[in-house]
Design a protein that fits this description.
Blueprint: E1 4-6, H1 7-18, H2 24-32, E2 46-48, H3 49-59, H4 63-71, H5 86-89, H6 105-112, E3 130-133, H7 140-147, E4 151-156, H8 159-168, H9 174-192, H10 197-215, H11 220-226, H12 232-254, H13 266-269, H14 273-287, H15 292-308, E5 328-330, E6 335-337, H16 344-362, E7 370-374, H17 382-389, H18 391-400, E8 402-407, H19 422-428, H20 447-464, E9 468-478, H21 485-491, E10 494-503, E11 516-524
Amino acid sequence: MQDLMTIKDASIWASKFIGKNVTPSNISYLIQYGRIPKNGDNGNAVVNRYDLEKYYNSHYETKESRWKKQLGNDLNWNLSFSEYKESETTKHVHRLHSYKGKFIPQLVEYFLDQHTDDFKNRLFFSPCDIILDPFCGSGTTLVQASELNLHAIGIDVSAFNAFISNIKVGKYDINDIRNTANMITKELKEFQKDKNNVSFEKELLDELKIFNGKFFPSPDFKYKVRQKNIDEKLYGKQKSDEFLKVYNNLVDKYKIPLKQKKDDSFLDKWFLQVVRDEIDFVFKQIKSIKNTETKKILALVLSRTVRSCRATTHADLATLKKPITTTYYCKKHGKICKPLFSILSWWQRYVQDTIKRVVQFNDLRTDTLQKCLIGDSRSINIVQELENKYPQFSKLIKNNKIAGIFSSPPYVGLIDYHEQHAYAYDLFGFERADDLEIGSLSNGQGAEARVSYVKGISDVLNNCKQFLKQDYDVFLVANDKYGLYPQIAELSNMKIVNEYKRPVLNRVEKDRSAYAEIIFHMKEK
């Protein structure tokens, strides 16, 4: 029975299977014209997954086939995890905060858990082993280790990355979080009473609804754009300029301050003054919280809120271009949109989402130890760092040694890890260590950057080896387009014993071309 799907579920499955949108109407067509057998009566038609798979295999080239043609037949499609919905690849605490460049939890699970298959033909780790992630990022390895009854230690040069990671694996008084957040929400609403931004935004939304309904009716407007009956760029600019008169009148009416007096920092530059005032107010409330763990997790909620309230267009959320202080034509939504004038709705949404995710993780976590240290993995002494604050963990590592590494090192010249969270560094006053990043975007991808990268990663492995068991297993996830990892293994006195080439389907960048990464399995020579 589990292979029988409703028409709606069949459309979702088929979309993933062929890598192209398949609607319920498309599935109904296949049934109606006898392309696939119908099961059930007319009111409750269901589809057998095997019938649908057979049809698409004979009539349609699958995404797997297309990608293998481009990337090679050694592509391990099992490691695409294409069967998982986004809600599963961002489950529970994994989505407590946005983070660019993280791997999905299912990939970590695959190598750390107790299953074997045709590709993973032996177990690498046992319950209560200690796992190390020297490029901890947002803590995916730590969280999954907890689920799998493994201890895990992370290291990251970014103080904010360590902050995210440790909050994810922290333990909390849920009632205290809820009550404290509700109190802050109440105080924020009181704070807003002396401001005009709430009334201003309400009237602005009313005017936008009327204007967009008249000039950008959905779905008619988008259809006409697709049919090239409307020059979207020209029309959008004309109507945007037209609405600006309404917008400016409302700004004057409510005396809304827009730009801040200075733009020296990220918070000065990328937030409207009314939003900045609310950010500062909520942060002041958070700083007065007595329960340390509640204070930390609500600080993370505020950071997530702040990120969503930057003064930018919807199309530029991933890569900021310039601050926006007016309404504008939004190509993404096909209408006139606006910047945000309050953090309240996002704050409330993220408070509820955070509580829900922490509760979900509490039901899955095990009684094991996880901690992320702030430091340079090329030189840090893990045991010494743990000794003062976490002596139990330090003793565990000294007595048992670390079983292995599972990590995704930074790629060459791809991301500036501190800069992606510049707002948080400004807000919390964390010390930045940009110069310690390996493979940063600002250093580029040239020959000199690659030499520096090879040395950096091999230095990390050589330093970490002193804490590993004799028969360790190291797994590094990398897109090695420059072929650097054989050299890294050599300089680390390791050998690459296996390579798992996997397609990366869930990418946040706009580029949706075929893309793969390799999981290098390395051991001591």
